[in-house]
Amino acid sequence: MGRSHVRTRRDADPGGYGFDLETLERPVDPRRLFAGAPGDAPVEVEIGSGKGSFLVAESELRPDTLFLGVERARRYWLYAADRLRRRERPNARIVRGDAREALEAMPEGSVAGLHMYFPDPWPKRRHAHRRLLIQPEFLAACERVLAAGAPLRVVTDDPGYFDQIEAALASRERLVRRPYEPPASAREGELAGSNFERKYRLEGRRIQAAAAVLSADEDDALANEQG
Ligand SMILES: C[S@@+](CC[C@H](N)C(=O)[O-])C[C@H]1O[C@@H](n2cnc3c(N)ncnc32)[C@H](O)[C@@H]1O
């Protein structure tokens, strides 16, 4: 996203809502970032939160779930953290850092759901597809943090990227495809309900979505495939 898309308030303050991945003690157990939250509350992670609209809306509708955003760009991270702080969202936090590193830092099986809405489709140059985030290696990192049965959702407006995502999902045996269900905060006719979806729908772009759940183990995945 370009610099012009966000104007962070002069007095923006992440308060206790925004964290820097680099400074967090390893392993990064997401629940530690939510002071006072029940130890068994499910944690869902959004990758590439942008301005944080999904975190704000979804955390309000589902107060028993903890939502952690991961955002690489400092200005978006600060904008989103400041929003969460001003709205005093008890169950939403955002970490500044790269999604791959964030997932690597989290304990195995610690995540009850992964949301990826409009992952950046660039760069578009030759061989660029190798640098796009959602690839088999990245999905392996997703599998490691997901709890058995937990869903992963991806939405994109980029047809080439969507094909790549489908191929990457097909290459991962433990990720079993499921019909896509929009999150609670999506409005009628929306797949994600994020800022980018609303913007792209106005432009008439086609938006596609995919979902999968982590099977309990590799044998289950095989049985699913055959069955
Ligand atoms: C196109 S925007 C989508 C924002 C939001 N999800 C939406 O749908 O409105 C993609 C966001 O992902 C962030 N991003 C891209 N690559 C990332 C990575 N490797 N780790 C964390 N965030 C990333 C970008 O900085 C940007 O804010």
Could you give the distance between the termini?
42 Å
Topology, number of strands: 8
H and E order: EEHEHEHEHEHEHEH
Q: What is the top-level CATH class?
A: Alpha Beta
Our estimate of the beta-strand percent is 15-25%
Task: Kindly provide the radius of gyration, computed on alpha-carbon positions and rounded to a whole number of angstroms.
Answer: 17 Å
| Range of helix content | 25-40%
Helix-strand makeup class: alpha/beta
Strand order of the largest sheet: 1-4-3-2-5-6-8-7
Mean pLDDT: 92
User: Uncertain regions: pLDDT < 50 for 5+ in a row?
Assistant: none
The CATH topology is Rossmann fold
List keywords for this structure.
227 residues, alpha/beta, Rossmann fold, 8-stranded mixed beta sheet, 7 helices, 8 strands, globular
Protein architecture, described:
This protein has about 230 residues and is α/β, with parallel strands linked by helices. The protein has one domain (about 5-225): Vaccinia Virus protein VP39 (Rossmann fold, 3-Layer(aba) Sandwich), CATH 3.40.50.150. It has seven helices and eight strands, in the order E-E-H-E-H-E-H-E-H-E-H-E-H-E-H. It has an eight-stranded mixed beta sheet with strand order 1-4-3-2-5-6-8-7, sandwiched between helices. Strand 3, helix 2 (about 75-85) and strand 4 (about 90-95) form a beta-alpha-beta unit. It starts with 17 loop residues before the first strand and ends with a helix. The mean pLDDT is about 90. S-adenosylmethionine binds near residues 49, 194 and 196.
